[in-house]
Amino acid sequence: MTLLLLPFFKPPVFEYISSLHFIDTLFDMAKIVSFGIIILLYISEKKLSRIMLFITLYQVSLFFSTVINSGNYWRLLVSCGTIISFCMITELAVKKNCQLYFKSILNIYIPLSVLNLFIVVMFPQGIAREDYYGNVYYLLGSRNGSSPLFIPLLIFSYIYSGMSNKKYTPMALFFTIIVSASILLTWSATGVAGLAMIILFVLLIYGRKISQLFNSLTLSVMYIAAFFGIIVFRLQYVFSFIIEKMLHKSITFTGRTDIWDIALKLIKNSPIFGYGVYEGHGLIFVRGQYYYAHNAVLEVLLQGGAVSLFFYAAIFASAAVSLYKYRKQKPAQILSFGIFTVLTMMLMEAYSTIWIFSLPVIACYIPYIAEKSEPQKETLKTLSNKKYLAYRLKQR
Fold first, then answer.
1. Per-residue model confidence (pLDDT) at position 392
2. 3-class DSSP state for residue 287?
């Protein structure tokens, strides 16, 4: 399993150091081989799951929009293939041996995270620089780019801890310290907010009875309310003290409101299929540069229109339904809040990584994870044995 996963874990910095481009090429070649093997393994299962159907249709809709808008669909094929194949191996691995899946990923990324922190401390100005925006890069990404990696991995560490019958293991605590130091030293407000949400949830709510109130249904309602409140109705002006004094951000979220206004106008001009996945640095031109939408939903609408948004929403809705059924189980609780945290972060950024899509895949197979947690076994037996067994048989 580890060999199949490794090609997906290329440190982003290799793309920005010309002398290391050959490593970037080696990873891409290995990814092609891994992709082929994963596809064969998945086909051998003789069934396309609902969550994989939605992820595939979402990627296909982006591809279609890109083709009809004369975009670079060859480059998009690489991205689509990467996300689909990683989600496939995630599904297969969680069904076969979820404990090994999380252990393999953490065994790779904990040492890489330690090395990344060392680089952050020793080279605060980064070891590579992206020319257009001037973003500096460390081993595992830029200031804003590393958060969508670290936060899902933190969630993985707490899920894995639950399989060891503990709220958090020494490994999870150590990883939390490393991730916290990396995010705080590079200071991305979005990353800091996401980190604070996860840590506060684990310390104050996770594992307690009150955690059932923070289930996927209530959290979905909270996210939808936040999206319309902040992006559409701009209620953030009411919380100007928190935004400006505590997070050190302007009331416009460093100019994001201007970008959202332009994005909404562009979406109205092409609401059904969007503009495709474009090359360069985004579609929105403001203040002399091109930008992405700085919001996941707006970016999906820009790239694939309402068609892509339908499948995108279906992905997370499927996860929410599965998590709500098992809301009394600790793995479902940490995963529900973890997905909510990532979605909240994506109110300000437009992440589209393998980790973002792997979370709903894992959520749809939460029973496989819950049964590995020893204290949960008796509870699982009292749920609805017929319903649980039917779920397991359906997923095979």
1. 56
2. coil
